[in-house]
Write a structure and sequence with these properties.
With about 210 residues, the protein is an alpha/beta fold. It has one domain: Rossmann fold (3-Layer(aba) Sandwich), CATH 3.40.50.300. The protein has six helices and nine strands; from the N terminus they run ββαββββαβαβαβαα. Strands 1, 2, 3, 4, 5, 6, 7, 8 and 9 form a nine-stranded mixed beta sheet that branches. A hairpin with a 2-residue loop joins strand 1 and strand 2. Helix 5 packs across helix 6. The relative contact order is 0.19.
Amino acid sequence: MPDSEAGRLSFKLVYYGPAQSGKTTNLLRLHDQLAPEMIGEIMTLETQDDRTLFFDLLPLGFRAPSGLLIKFRLFTVPGQVAHDGTRKAVLSRADGVVFVADSARTQETNNAESFQTLAANCSRVGLDFEHLPLVVQFNKQDLPDAVPEQEIRDRWSAAPWPLHFASALHGVGVRETFADLLRATWRCHAESCELASKHGLDEAGFVAGALGGG
């Protein structure tokens, strides 16, 4: 459930996926593209080899018609296998997840293993994976060794989650992925948080507010 304080509601959104799939790049491009009323600085903790070790945090927010402050905290998790404990800690209490896969054909096994750990870690930290707002993004579609979009769509045709195809380095598909996560998050939490009934915030308004209305 989102964190709630007097006059404020905070959603935790996590970008999850294998090492170097482009989770951090997604947040960097989002920071460039979004223009909400309040947008924070990105914070990055890195190892000596420049891979994200813990997380990136991009705080942003806007106000609902009722005056309620809607906040979003965006995190990435470390992709390296050795940091599973950190992944669980960051994933804990998440209100929505983007799974960022690497489109390279050589990364198919890593993608599958990372997705399996996402499902397992959700269970371990008390999240209902079956009902968790989740969007899947296949990143690095611009690279020559990328698995073609149609092949991926065929393979994922039975999956219930929205699929996006991106080149986060160039800002392609980043905003669209985030918008779909916002829609899924609103649908999951609107009733319990009285977003529409009490705060005048329908799905379109929720998405537009987070995206800066533009």
